[in-house]
Amino acid sequence: MTLKILFIGDIMGRAGRKAVSAFLPSLREEHSIDLVIANAENLAHGKGITRATLSEICNAGVDLCTSGNHVWAKPEGVEILQQPDTLLLRPANYPPKTPGVGEKVVAIATKSILVINLMGRDFMPTTVDCPFRALDAILEKYRTTPLAGIIVDIHAETTSEKHAVALYSDGRVSAVVGTHTHVPTADERILPGGTGFQSDTGMIGVRDTLIGVTYESGIKRFLTRMPSHFEIAESGLTVFNSILLAIDSETRKTVSITRIQKEIII
Ligand SMILES: [Fe+2]
Ligand SMILES: [Fe+2]
Questions:
Q1: Is the pTM of this model over 0.90?
Q2: CA of 68 to the centre of ligand 2 (A)
Q3: pLDDT digits (tens, 9 = 90+) for 72-88
């Protein structure tokens, strides 16, 4: 059996949510998608998550959300992380006792998929525990669990660290997809051991901006090196960046990996 999983990159504020609502229902139908995972760290006005914004994308067809360094920005998001039936993960390699969980098993009909959220350490604003050891510990925890696939979101700044996580995982997980930079990479492929990989899926947000922040508000930091307030771009030509994975439920390997990128004026 082949399972179709769509992974959507960082959804940036209102424009990102609107684009997801515009494209996802028809994409799910067109490609017979079984599971949709999205990175939600920027969901509520660019930083954090609220109940209303999470409901908006879940109503559009997102089944489970991963996140990253911005997941803590809104108190509601931290509350959501701690609900027993939460649909929101935070990176698994935050230190012990951090609220929330970093992995979850989701059911697709009779099959189970393990979704793991990790965060990198190089050039990231927050220091976290080792993502490689965190991955090993999670895979050991689920070693005897019957799984049809394992998907990893590695939320990290550098392509090298994301490549390292992917090659370290090759043959042990179905796919490793990167998030955080908001810029999609053209390196999607199947690694020698059968793990699908893309360094970064890219954002769902307004295109002609500084990764979702208005040029007018963001450029000041580059010109003066002073802290400045970032305005999230809420309308304009919006890009939708995602990656479609087809996974063999018997071997748990990726059999195809395809970028699905669209544009819409919000
Ligand atoms: Fe982000
Ligand atoms: Fe991030």
A1: yes
A2: 5
A3: 999 999 999 999 999 99
Identify which ligand lies nearest to the alpha carbon of 155.
Answer: 2
Among this protein's residues, is 70 annotated catalytic? yes
- Cα–Cα distance between 132 and 129 in angstroms, integer? 9
Which CATH superfamily hosts domain 2-265? Answer: Metallo-dependent phosphatases (3.60.21.10)
Q: What is the residue whose two structure tokens read 């999983």?
A: 5
Candidates 45, 70, 182, 229; catalytic one: 70
Could you read off the pLDDT of 200-221 as tens digits, one per residue?
999 999 999 999 999 999 999 9
Give the chain's end-to-end CA distance (angstroms, integer). 37
